[in-house]
Amino acid sequence: MPGLRREELALLAGVSASYYARLEQGHSLGASPEVLDAIARALRLDESEHRHLHDLARPPKSRGGRRPAPERVTEATAQLLDALGDAPAIVIGRRSDVLAWNRLGHALFAGHLDPAAPDVPAQRPNMARLVFLDTHTRDLYADWPGKARAVVGNLRLVAGQYPQDAALHLLLGELSTKSGDFASMWADHRVRACAVAEYEMRHPLVGPLTVKQQTLSQGPGPSVVVATTVAGSPSRAALELLAQATARTVPARSDSRLSTG
Fold first, then answer.
1. I need a surface site. Which of 37, 109, 148, 228 has the fewest CB within 10 A?
2. In which element (H, E) is residue 92 found?
3. Cα→Cα distances 15→23, 34, 40, 54, 115, Å
4. CA-CA distances (angstroms) from residue 39 to 13, 14, 192?
5. Burial class of residue 51 (count of CB atoms within 10 Å of its CB; 0-12, 13-18, 19+)
């Protein structure tokens, strides 16, 4: 909390200043949930930050000691993509890998890429890489810094949940090395879960449109991100125009059962 000294935060949380200092330095793992809740209240953390604090405080062996399970697109998720045929949708893994997309999802978010790219684990697009390292994607968002901060905040949440995920650390290292913007935002240590966010997009085929991106999650597995527009709006008209334009191309839905760790 801005303006408060460590001693004042410790007092608000009901712990000693020395104990709070050890927590800050990572020398007192295994703090009780009650203490963590009190610290979260003192710091006025939101729900995402509160959850992240608990993740960081757990002993390493209890927060991802085993290799994360391979990610795959389930039959239920594939059916959901089919059902969302009139709305752009993509399936995102924990590291922001694109595991699948429907035709409009591909056309809206990554129409410059091979529609079949998600089918092969080694070639799967990664939304974090696209946002920070791909010129097309960077130009797609009118408020690129806002989108970029959302990506970084979500990756920090995942890093707290899977501290021993080697592939995730390789991704973070790559982005930090290749993007000064990412390195700066990552150093800010902010966490952010964006279940619903509105973005103004500048699509090269249909021009400007405003979409609401909603993340549908059923637990620790992959999430489905759906883009919606207001009925009767110019943005809805632009999305319908995009659907007509891509209807003449090969369908781009991917429901690969191939997995990656």
1. 37
2. strand 89-92
3. 11, 11, 13, 17, 55
4. 5, 8, 18
5. middle
Q: In the block, which residue shows the tokens 């935002």?
A: 185
Neighbouring CB atoms inside 10 A of 135's CB total 9
- Length of the chain equals 261
* CA–CA gap between residue 178 and residue 156 (Å, rounded): 18
Direct distance between the N- and C-terminal alpha carbons of the chain, in angstroms, rounded to an integer: 38
Q: How confident is the model at residue 258 (pLDDT cuts 50, 70, 90)?
A: very low
Q: Is 192 left (phi over 0), alpha (psi -120 to 50) or beta?
A: beta
Task: Please state the pTM of the whole predicted model.
Answer: 0.72
For 60, which DSSP code? G
In this prediction, residue 127 carries a pLDDT of: 96
The single residue listed with the structure tokens 């595991």 is 99
CB atoms within 10 A of CB 205: 12
Which residues does 254 contact at the CB level (< 8 Å), separation at least 6?
73, 99, 100, 101, 115, 116, 117, 118, 119
Dist CA 180 CA 120 (whole Å): 29
State the average pLDDT over residues 196-211.
95
